[in-house]
# Entry
Amino acid sequence: MSYRFRAARSFWRSWSKLSREQQQTARRAFSIFKQNPFDPRLRAHKIHRLSAHFGHTIYAVEIPGDLRAAFYLEGETVWSVSIGTHDIYKR
# Structure
């Protein structure tokens, strides 16, 4: 499947709080993510608590350095909504 990728304002707010090193690590993971957000190397999984909060099925991928990126699908569009440590799960 061919996806389009978008990032919500909330994603960019959380991105700006990452260190430069974390951003570099995340960029490497996003190169895989943009090929396939469900690539097994990223260990995508559903986040039930955030899904209830956002009203969409929210998934998270694992990024080295204890980072997670949360996203949801809207048709063929992948919306990134947050990035950070496990604390992103505590909305």
Summary: The chain has three helices and five strands. The mean pLDDT is 92. Residues 33 and 39 are 7 Å apart (CA to CA).
